[in-house]
Amino acid sequence: MNFKHNKKRNPAFIFEALTREFAKAKLYKDQKRLNSVKKVMKEVFHKESLLYKQLRLYKALIETREVDYITAEKIIAEVHRVYSTFDKKALYDEQTAAIHKINHEVSPAVFQNFVSNYKSLASAYQMFHDDTIGVKDRVLLERKIIQEMVSEAVEQKEEAPVDELVVRTFIKKFNNTFGTLMTEQKTLISMYMGSLEDDDTELKMFVNEELERLKGIIKENIKIEEIESDNQMKQKIVKVYKLLEGFRSKKDLTKDDLIFILKTQELAKEIQA
């Protein structure tokens, strides 16, 4: 079955990803981001919204366990019935508004958050787009979901991917060397982690924008008296600027590239101070 899962239009994925972002903001004691996430969650999933109503349908499919086969079939039939009453254009508009809010009020990195039940969310997503798949695939999909609904509830331990553990270790070492990470550094690392699990398009877009921002800061401040009077410092900053100019964000971002951008973010902060 060949089917593209658009996670940004999957309300269950959005909810889980925002929940993870909330947890990270709490961990980093980032009150500003914490407030932004809470605000967006309340606005996107208020009880009158179609996204909230669809989220409940997702949960009915994903969280139901240990029921008999007939009950599972009835739940799926009811999910289809309720979803058929939705105004699809209004739902699409709510999804678009949610994506815009998350991108501009929190961060595009939210969509790169690791979600442990991603495969189940993707399967449920197909249930709401079964008009794009054939009859056979639709039957096989429903059978797969029914099998999960009738199975025993198993307590699952969420394990972070090996790559995420590596990056966590890197964050700790970076903090010890350079101090607490800035918001833009956390965003970069979060998106880098997400790119190890999924498509890296948004990471490349973010890197492009961040490189332009950093070049702008260096260009604006390279002639300040403190830098002009220190020839060694000026040479180093000019070298960094040239490296930024020659950086090709279309290539896969390596760990060395990540470290270079993180250090340049730190440099930009210092020369602006």
**Can you count the helices?**
13
Shape: elongated
Element order: H for helix, E for strand: HHHHHHHHHHHHH
What amount of the residues lies in strands?
Answer: under 5%
Distance between the termini: 55 Å
Number of distinct beta strands: 0
Kindly provide the radius of gyration, computed on alpha-carbon positions and rounded to a whole number of angstroms: 23 Å
The total tally of domains equals 2
Poorly predicted ranges (pLDDT <50, ≥5 residues)?
A: 155-163
The helix content, as a percent range, equals over 70%
Secondary-structure-based class equals mainly alpha
Notable traits:
273 residues, mainly alpha, 2 domains, elongated
Please describe what this structure looks like:
There is one protein chain. This protein has 273 residues and is mostly helical. The protein has two domains: 144 residues, no CATH class; 111 residues, no CATH class. 72% of the residues lie in helices and 0% in strands. The chain is built from 13 helices and no strands. The longest helix has 21 residues. The N and C termini lie far apart (55 Å). About 3% of the residues have low confidence.
Helix and strand topology:
Blueprint (H helix, E strand, L loop, with lengths): L10 H17 L3 H14 L5 H14 L5 H16 L3 H19 L11 H10 L7 H16 L11 H17 L4 H15 L3 H21 L3 H4 L2 H16 L8 H18 L1
Helix pairs in contact: 1-2, 2-5, 3-4, 4-7, 6-7, 9-10, 10-12, 10-13
